């Protein structure tokens, strides 16, 4: 199983980025897909996840700014990030899981928001 994340980069406050995660080696439609992040010196935290049926959930810290969605035909999950803030700076990881299992993790993509 591989999860290949991309789309990170350097952006100014208020800017936008779209992260992508392409999965291979698994039956994508069976997996809940999520995005997590880890900022320097902080614990990893959930950003958003999308159910197998496409129902999204977002953490309060990003609600209204970030949107998660999936494309089962492309075996991909996306995180559209708007109105970025410096506190969004982190390494972002995608995850594929079934139920409450730990599942599989991608390699991470760096997002840096300058003030």
How does this structure look, described?
The chain has strands spanning 2-6, 9-12, 17-24, 32-38, 45-50, 56-58, 66-71, 76-81, 90-97, 104-105, 109-114. With 115 residues, it is mainly beta. The mean pLDDT is 97.
- SS strand fraction: over 45%
**pLDDT averaged residue by residue:** 97
Taking the alpha carbons of the first and last residues, their distance comes to: 37 Å
Low-confidence stretches: none
**How large, in whole angstroms, is the Cα Rg?**
13 Å
Order of helices and strands: EEEEEEEEEEE
Biggest pleated sheet: 7 strands, mixed
The rough form would be described as: globular
Q: What's the helical proportion of residues? A: under 10%
How many beta-strand runs?
A: 11
Q: Please work out how many helical segments DSSP would assign.
A: 0
Quick structural overview:
It is built from no helices and eleven strands.
Task: Describe this protein with a few key phrases.
single chain; about 120 residues; mainly beta; seven-stranded mixed beta sheet; four-stranded antiparallel beta sheet; about 0% helix; globular
């Amino acid at each position: 199983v591989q999860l290949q994340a991309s789309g990170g980069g350097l952006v100014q406050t208020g800017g936008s980025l779209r992260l992508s995660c392409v999965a291979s080696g698994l039956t994508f439609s069976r997996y809940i897909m999520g995005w997590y992040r880890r900022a320097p010196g902080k614990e990893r935290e959930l950003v958003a996840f999308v159910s197998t049926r496409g129902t999204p959930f977002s953490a309060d810290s990003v609600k209204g700014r970030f949107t998660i969605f999936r494309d089962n035909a492309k075996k991909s999950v996306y995180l559209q990030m708007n109105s970025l803030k410096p506190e969004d700076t982190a390494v972002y990881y995608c995850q594929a899981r079934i139920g409450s299992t730990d599942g599989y993790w991608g390699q991470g993509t760096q997002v840096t928001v300058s003030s």
